[in-house]
Amino acid sequence: MFPGGRQKEHRHSWVKDFLIMGDPTGTKDIDMHKKVWRQVVQPPAGFILDVPERGLGMEKLVIKGGRPLYGNVRISGAKNSALAMIPAALLPDSPTVLENIPEIGDIAVYIEILQKLGVKVASTGKELQIDPSTLQLQPVLDPRVGELRASYYLMGALLGKFHEVTIGLPGGCKLGLRPIDQHIKGFEALGAKVNLKDGVVHIEAPGLKGARIYLDVVSVGATINLMLAAVCAEGITVIENAAKEPEVIDVATLLSSMGAQIKGAGTDVIRIRGGRRLHGCRHSIIPDRIEAGTYMIAAAATRGQVRIEQVIPKHLESVSAKLREMGVQIEEEEESITVSGRDSYASVDIRTLPYPGFPTDLQQPFTSLLTQAHGTSLITDSIYSSRFDHVGQLEKMGAKIQTEGRTAIVRGVTPLAGTQVHAFDLRGGASLIIAGLIADGVTRITGVEKIRRGYERLEEKLNGLGAEIWRE
Ligand SMILES: CC(=O)N[C@H]1[C@@H](OP(=O)(O)OP(=O)(O)OC[C@H]2O[C@@H](n3ccc(=O)[nH]c3=O)[C@H](O)[C@@H]2O)O[C@H](CO)[C@@H](O)[C@@H]1O
Ligand SMILES: C=C(OP(=O)(O)O)C(=O)O
Fold first, then answer.
1. Is 427 annotated as contributing to ligand binding?
2. E-assigned strands of 320-452?
C-alpha cells in the first residue's frame, strides 16, 4: 500500500509501532487513546511521504529572464474547489457537470482514481461530467491516493454515501506536519469508528447522525470533508471554527444545488441539515485565486503591466493590499485586476493566515518578489511549520534570505542570476518561475511535475505575456 521509495521502512515501522502498541496505556482511557491516535495520524517529525514522481521526471522548464510581463491573462478554475467537487459529485446517484475545470495534474490524477473505482468520467473542454451510478463500495487502495492532498475528500464523500470507507493516507505538498486529526474527530462526532492499519484508514458508521463539531484548528480540508459527510447524516450538524475560504463557499454552493441544506458557509459557523436525497447538478467553479495571485506577483516582480482576467478581486484583497503597501499599482474592476509594476519597491512584513488573511499558498511566490524590495522584509508562515524548501534554491540565484523558525528574513534589493534550480513543491516551483523571470540569464527548473499539479498551461500563459519560457 505504501507509495514506495526511500522512506518506506521509516513509515512502516511508525505505523507498525502503533499496531503493536495497541492500547499502550492499558487503561482503556478514551482520552489517552485519542491522544495516541492523534500521534498516529500526525506523522512524526522528519517523516517524509515518498510519492512516486509523475510524468516525465526529466522535464525542465527553461526561462530566459529579464523581460517584463505585459498583456492579459485569463485565470483558470480553482484547484482547491475542483478537487473537493469531484468527490462531492459521488454523493448523488445521477451525473454532475462541473464547468471551468482546471486542466492540471492533480485533476488528472483524481479522475484516474475515480475511473478505477468504476465511476464514469467524461470531459469536454473545460467541462467534466461525473456519473457515479456505477460506483460500488470498495477499498480505495490506488497508490495515487498518496499523491494528492485532496484524496482525503473521498473519506467524507464515501462515508456519506456508503457509511463506510477504506482508503490510504493523503499526500500533497511536503510542508511539514499535515495531520488529519480534525477530520477524524469530526467523523467520530458523526458516529463513525475510525481505524488505521498499515497506512490504510478504515472508517465505518452504522448510521451517521448530525452533531456539533468544534474544530481545534481552522482547516479547509476538515471543514469541507465534514460538510460532505454531514449532508448525508440524519439531523443537524454544526461545524464551529470552520474555515471561511472561498473554496468552502463554492463547495457549499455545489452541495446546495444538489439539494443539500447548508447555511453559514463563509462564516466560522456552518449549519447543515442532513439526510436529504441529493441529485446531480451543473456548477461552475470559481476562479483560482492562487493562480491569479501568482500572476499578480509575477507582473510586479518583472515591473510589467498585466490585466488578470476572470477573477474575483475580493478573493485577492490581502494580496492586493500587500502589493500596494510595496508601491505596486493595483486597479480592480468587476472581474479583473490590473497590476502595474514600479522601478522601486518598499519592504513589507507578511504573516500568512486563514482566509481572509494572506494565503500561505502565495507565501513562496511572494518571497521572490521581496528580493526586489528595498530593505528587510519578514514573511512568516503561521499555517505550515516547514514551507521554505524554495529558499535554498532562491539563494542559489543570489537571493539573501535567512530562515528563523517559521519566518523568512528577506534582504533586498538583490539582483538574481539564472542557474539550475529544483522545485520541491508546487508553490515553491512558482516562486522559482518568478525568480527566473526577473533573473539575468537562463534559469533551468527541474521538478516540473510538482508545478504542473496546480498551474494550467503555464508556458502558454507566460509566453502570451511576453516571457521567454519553454520546456526542455
Ligand atoms: C487541496 C487543498 O485544498 N489544499 C489546501 C488546503 O490544504 P489542507 O486542507 O490540507 O489545509 P488545512 O486548512 O487543513 O490546514 C491548515 C493547518 O491546520 C493543520 N491541520 C489541518 C487538519 C487537521 O486535521 N489537523 C491540523 O492540525 C494543518 O497542519 C495546517 O497547519 O488548505 C491549505 C490552507 O489554506 C492550503 O495550503 C492548501 O492548498
Ligand atoms: C499546498 C497546496 O496544495 P495541496 O494541499 O494539494 O498539497 C497548494 O496548492 O499550494
1. no
2. 329-332, 336-340, 345-346, 349-352, 373-381, 400-404, 407-412, 420-422, 442-446
Residues in CB range of 160: below 8 A, 6 or more apart: 91, 208, 228, 229, 230, 231, 232, 233
**178 alpha carbon, closest ligand:** 1
Structural domain spans, the chain? 61-76+287-471, 79-284
| 296-345 pLDDT per residue, tens | 999 999 999 999 999 999 999 999 999 999 999 999 999 999 999 999 99
Q: Which residue among 173, 323, 362, 423 is the active-site one?
A: 173
Which ligand 1 atom is nearest residue 384's CA?
31
Per the annotation, the verdict on 232 as an active-site residue is no
pLDDT for residue 239 = 98
Q: Which residues line ligand 2 (CB under 6 A)?
A: 79, 149-150, 172-173, 361, 426-427, 454
Q: For the ranges 145-149, 172-176, 189-193, 223-227, which has the lowest average pLDDT? A: 172-176
Q: What is the mean pLDDT of residues 194-214?
A: 94
Tell me the fold of 61-76+287-471.
UDP-n-acetylglucosamine1-carboxyvinyl-transferase; Chain (3.65.10)
Mean confidence (pLDDT) of the chain: 89
pLDDT at 279: 97
Q: What is the DSSP secondary structure assignment for residue 446, as one 8-state letter?
A: E
213 lines ligand 1 (CB under 6 A): no
ipTM: 0.99
| CATH topology for the 79-284 domain | UDP-n-acetylglucosamine1-carboxyvinyl-transferase; Chain (3.65.10)
